Amino acid sequence: MEGARPTNSEERDGRSKEPSPSELLDRSKMLNFEFNGRRMSAFEGDTVASALYASGVRIFSRSFKYHRPRGLLCVSGRCPNCLMSVDGVPNVKACTERVRAGMKVKSQNCWPSLEHDIFSVIDKIGRFLPVGFYYKTFINPPIEWSRVEWIIRRLTGLGDIEEEIASATGKGPKDGRSIISSSFEHLNLQADVAVIGGGPCGIFAALEAGNAGARVVLVDDQPALGGHLRYSGETLSIDVATGEGAYSGLKSSAVASTLEKAVRDRPNMTVLDNSTAFGIYESNLIGIVRGNSEIRLRAEQLVFATGAHEFPSVFQNNDLPEVFLGRGMQRLINLYGVIPGKRAVVVSNNDSGLGVARTLMDAGVKLEAYIDSRKAVGAPETLAEIEDAKVQTFLGWAVKEARGSKHVSSIVICEVDNEGELVHGTERVVSCDLVSLSTGFETEAWLLNQTGSRTIYDELLREFIPRELKPTVYVCGDLTGIHDLNIAIMQGKVAGLSAAANLPAMARSTELKVEYQRKSLETYSRLVSQYEGKYREGMKHTRGPEVLVVEYPGSDKMRKRFVCVCEDVVAKDISLATFEGFDDIETLKRYSTVTMGPCQGKMCSMPSLHLCSRVTGRSIAQTGRTVSRPPFVPVAMGALAGAELHPVKLTGIHYKHIELGARIMDMGEWKRPHVYTSVEEEYKAVRESVGVIDVSTLGRLDVKGRDAGKLLDFVYTHIFSTLKVGKSRYGVICDDAGIVLDDGTVTRLSETHYFITTTTGNVEFVEEWLVWWATALRLDAYITNVTAGLGAVNVAGPKARDLLRKLTTVDLSSGAFPYMNSAEGEVAGVPCILLRIGFVGETGWEIHFPAEFGEYFWDTLLEAGKEFGVKPFGVETQRVLRLEKKHVIVGQDTDALSNPFEADMAWTVKFEKEDFVGKAALVAAEKKEPERMLVGFVMKDSMVAHDGDQVFSQDGSRHIGFVTSSRFSPKVGRCVGMALVSPEYYKEGSLIRVKSDDALNGAEVTLAPFYDPEGKRLRA
Fold first, then answer.
1. Partner of 476 for a Cys bridge, out of 201, 248, 482, 601, CB 3.0 to 4.6 A?
2. Is residue 849 one of the residues assigned to a domain?
3. Which domain holds residue 977?
């Protein structure tokens, strides 16, 4: 099996026979999933990592730079070792991702397989790739870097978004992204008190604040509340002074379940489990990611109960598979019933290692040795139990090296002197297949720091602890650097009561209940101070030398000591970077990339600080921590962006298009028919008989008032105050810089009433633009958006008049109803506004009517036109028809820099008006030569250009513009189009070349329309 260590059948079935009380599995339900193409089984409740480990998989990933084998380490989502692709989504944490039936899991950053990665050869040449090598090599000549850059990028990194999503969905990257992003969403919450962290102290903080009447939101990144109580497996000993003595003598998992139920049962409390707070922003805004949802929580008071996490010590080969953190081992055993190995060694420097040793023995794992760098432990009775089980104990010893290739086979240990250095000549080899590290805690203060609160390094506790908290911020539990359950309970109560007491309503209250809570706060605060003092005294007696980064004179320098498992930064890299001058922790971070990987420093921050401190001779406090900035954990861009929620608009005739078999396309917010049968068939109908198209998507505005004409004269470049009633005129809107914003028709229905059409996507803007200027100029003009209330159909073709004469009494003859005229009347019994315009270049009428008659009106037109061969035509056919007439589409044939002169619409600008929007800019533009001009072109050969293709001079030596629109023209028999080009090519017959599909093809410029250049057909 890929990634699996050779084991016998008994070892591969790596589950405990009896489930533990804290187990999250339902062993009565089996799920099947796929890992690298192989079928795997899991229990319901399993994570991908626990299921794979129980099945014998030991290698979970390959490292970022050296492609070394990596196995499970933290089992809590804080390290990069188990990142995999799940259902096409890359970089998913396998140790927290629950198994779902049928899910497809793939390993990353390896080839051809996880077990046998050919790129692991890089590990053998690591000495030629020192820290920052990409800044030092392949620099001269400059071309060298371009040759190797793609190789370096290919060999490093993690999952690939494009390939992974396409593979999982069976579609292209674009389609795949839309499928995944459709599940993202945003949620906004408010709370009086937000508690971040669902361990015991966080739960008690929430309960006390809730009991005081506060609205509480509790955020925790685990599926169940309780923190370490869920997986430690210990029997609790709780002092009566905490007020929770009833829990003493109970199993930790049972207490966790009881406390969780107490929180969830409170009506004024909201629990966000499986949720990670990734950032603290202004005014106590908390960014939270929960699955594919981003939650924005605003709270008046913040309680941080984020705890502390373990990190690995630095010794030779410390990254081998089956080297675990102690709490990771406990999670695997107690939450998922996985037996991680047969022969284990526990390496520790604090009392948590004793608990891990007991967990391993209770699970039936043979404990080969317990190794502690301290000379004395804080729980001698537990140590005695370990020794009574015939386990070798080494006090005052530390690990020097782990041995093995793809998994641990043994470790080398040495005595430690009083300075924390290994004693040469005392080496001993201990055979094992499992190493547990309980070698230090780091407080999870990153979010706390983002509030502006400070942390300082405590030399006794050897952790960064909170100091100088901001108002509205409270802390409790392991975050304070004190790892004691009794103290954590009382700290949680103090934090919760303090947060509630400082709420504005509570602070002013004199109710008896509130007074009682204030006295409880005073009592617990005093007890916390006393207990913390005793804890510190005990630490002084048991604290031994700190052996976090192993140094051993004469050791084999080829064997790597990893400081950062995310970025493959080894101890010598830190030393070299510091020697090269990057001795400030911030510049060291950026140069070496330590703490910049997926774990964001959780596994490497403290080791790198210790090593930097040792090399520079500064203390840890003087070295300091790097600045914490959100996001604290990697967050999917889709979660930040939210769902792709787009409004969808349908015309009143939409479902008739579906019945006719139209292929539907998106056009802005609207759904429109792209084509019904074929472009050729629809084109022929319009040019030879009659066609109908649904144009209900056009924007329609009704402008009324004494100053309506004056307003339109000011906003449009043309003149409309002199437009006769019953006439229509084309108009262009520009901004103050003379840039074309929109176009359309303006029809005068009466002396004080105008009917305007706009482009499909711009009606809201044009409405706002008109309202703005009507208000600013204090004009008597009222603008109403009537788009939604009206449907519209364009009937066009040589037989359009014949069709409409069957349905209306309006005189449609050219004499009575000439081109660019309008009339109001009934068509098929429906009141309509008829505009004679010719966007497609044929005799035609644009008919606007109440939207509720849409389907009836459409059906009636098609029925009446059967004898004339009527056919509906779609947007694609319309684009071909209008392109043959060189009719401009604003936004396609123009861009954000186009003025009317460049867009070949100079005839729409009337400078005789006293003023209009953009006049000054257009006066200046008229006086100088344009930078480009819109021209038509006809391809010389059979090639069909694409919209956006680049245009070059005839000899191909100079880039002169780009294609804005291009289609095959049935009339011309070749591809025709429009392009924005250099002004010297604005001449009939100019020769250009269009680069399409990597080929330069000849074309000839034409300034006249390609079809009916004199306009006789649309005026017939």
1. 201
2. no
3. 929-1020
